[in-house]
Amino acid sequence: MASAQVEVCRPVGAMGFVERLNAPWHERALQLFMVIVLAHWAEHLFQAFQIYVLGWPVPRALGALGLLYPWLVKSEVMHYGYALIMLGALWVLRSGFTGVQDRRWWTIALAIQFFHHFEHLLLQLQFLVGANLLGRPVPTSLAQLWIPRVELHLLYNTIVFLPMIVAMYYHMFPTREEAVEQQCSCAWHSRLASAAQPG
Q: How far apart are CA 199 and CA 33, in angstroms?
């Protein structure tokens, strides 16, 4: 217990960058990460809108950024870059989740994103090599053999996003025991306590 107290009292200047991201900067890092996640969601939802509401053919429905920079989508760079950022952020921010439930749900999101990243890596490699899986006319992921690409990536984003939200809920509302272990300001009880202190 004494060593845990030493860690909690460790000055910010003595922490490395990743330690800061998971302690005093954790709340801001999660907020920034959520902006990135929601921006990518917006891209997928706009693409779905182009297909299902506007009636555009799938090859023409490239989302918002894809309309401005078609090569981002056609070269797989945008989605692969997002998958990589998402995987890295889920990994790097994981140690800030110190409770049982928040850590468990964040790890589930990380595991799903690992496979999602693998699917995008497979797509990226097919584009770079110029040969598609099973001789298909376009780069194809494994799950895409059964589920159309647009729907598949909406599904992937959903099944990664949901456990992230559950993890953040448990992280923001930890048990009393888990709250003691938190080194960040993410828990609402810490905001309420600091607001109640005379200033």
A: 31
